[in-house]
Amino acid sequence: MGSAGAQAAHGGSGVTVAGDWPERALADILHRVDVTRAEVGARFPLFADPDTGRWKTTSRGSWTGGFWAGLLWLRARHTGHEADRAVASACTARLAGWVEADTVTRGLILWYGTALAVNDRSAQELRNRAARACLAALEPELGLVPWGSAFGGPRLLARVDGVPGTVPLLASVGVEGAAAAASHLHRHIDLCRVDGSVVPALRFEPGTGWRPCDDPPPGWSRGRPWLLLAVADALHQPRTTQWNHQRLEATAAGLVAARTGLPRWGVPPADEGQPDSPQDTSAAAITAVALLKLSRVAGPRAAEYSSRALAILDHLVASHLTGPAGARPAGMLLNGCYDAGRSVAVRHELIWGDFFLALGLAALTGLIDIRTV
Questions:
Q1: pLDDT over threshold 80, residue 117
Q2: What angle is formed at CA 283 by the lines to CA 179 and CA 187, rounded to 5 degrees?
Q3: pLDDT tops 90 at residue 239
Q4: Predicted TM-score (pTM) above 0.90
Q5: How far apart (Å, rounded) are the C-alpha atoms in residues 345 and 13?
Q6: Cα–chain-centroid distance for residue 91?
Q7: Cα separation of 316 and 4, whole Å?
Q8: pLDDT-above-70 percentage for the chain
Q9: What pLDDT shows up at residue 262?
């Protein structure tokens, strides 16, 4: 379906693309969004059976609810229909209960659930409330917003999936928020970047300090992508001392370089410590979006980041996205792995995989400015 052969200027993304495969793939995904909306109603899709396309849903959205709202906003922008905007706005409003929840995944839920909601006052107000709640949750002595207790388990965790979304969310509320965002990110880099690898989660114990957790494992497929995405977002913040752009650029380069042993399209195993574990296309989609963001930062690596992002997106569309022909619904990004360790949804369509693939394609087509989402 895709091809990264002879290149031609495309969209306003700063990336060159051959052919119209991004438009066709994005149209399939957003049609799938409409089909899913009719299936799930007021519930939130989480992951779908790879053979039937039927969704496992949640009532409140869990940590993934913002990605469903984000997909609905992408569809509304694509169609330009007021009815689609109303559907997206109503879904975003259903995320309001997460504002007061004790979880740093407010970033994943309430940044991605509102960032595409242009000229929607209620979504903007929700984002502002969430940002201030996240700011209030900052633990100054730890230098970060802890994982929280909303999903059970220990509260004082530092996890890489608590950084993306949280960085731009905090930075949206003025000077104090920007300082908190920079502290939150740099503290996670301090803790999670060890000898070129990424430690996905650490637990704080009074008296003994930070200790690595066993879950997620060190080779977790989404560890590097989540951290890379947060770094990429930070590099679009103003160049001030608190952001330390030089360190962020070096961190991004190191995270990208660590993946050069993978095939160029970058679909990793769900656990890199177990190469025979299932693939995780959602990790590749997150990486592609991070690379597109990095490609919009002026510097000597911009062209490399652009080329790698395009290669990943092309491969995901050509090899893992269902098309109009066949028994399965079109627009499903297959071979995502929710939780390999617990054997949960190990080759499925994942709502955040769909979102990040759609976001990358929307950037290629010029539908969105990747720097702002």
A1: yes
A2: 25
A3: no
A4: yes
A5: 33
A6: 19
A7: 12
A8: 94
A9: 59
CA-CA distance, 367 to 252, in Å (whole number)? Answer: 26
**Would you state the pLDDT for residue 3?**
39
pLDDT recorded at residue 327: 87
Q: Six-digit token pair at 116?
A: 């595409």
Mean pLDDT of the 228-233 span:
98
| Burial class of residue 143 (count of CB atoms within 10 Å of its CB; 0-12, 13-18, 19+) | middle
How far from 321 is each of 24, 65, 326, 354, CA to CA, in Å? 11, 22, 12, 9
Structure confidence at residue 15 (pLDDT) = 66
Phi, psi of 57, rounded to the nearest 5 degrees: -125, 165
Distance between CA atoms of 66 and 226, rounded to whole angstroms?
Answer: 15
Q: Which two tokens stand for residue 48?
A: 């779908």
225 and 182 in contact (C-beta within 8 Å)? no
Q: Give 195-227 as a 3 state SS string.
A: CCEECCEEEEECCCEEEECCCCCCCECCHHHHH
Sequential DSSP letters for 151-189: TSS-S-EEEGGGSTTHHHHHHTSHHHHHHHHHHHHHHHH
Do 178 and 237 form a contact (C-beta atoms < 8 A)?
A: yes
pLDDT-based confidence at residue 260 (cuts at 50, 70, 90): low
Residue 323 phi, psi dihedral angles, 5° rounding: -110, -175
Q: Using an 8 Å Cβ cutoff, are 223 and 202 in contact?
A: no
| Tens of pLDDT, residues 157-213 | 999 999 999 999 999 999 999 999 999 999 999 999 987 789 999 999 999 999 999
- The counts of H helices and E strands in the chain are 12, 8
Q: Give how far Cα 343 sits from Cα of 46, 200, 277, Å.
A: 15, 19, 10
Residue 6 has pLDDT above 50, yes or no: no
Lookup: tokens for 258: 């660590």
Q: Where are the beta strands (DSSP E) in the chain?
A: 44-48, 55-58, 157-159, 193-194, 197-198, 201-205, 209-212, 349-350
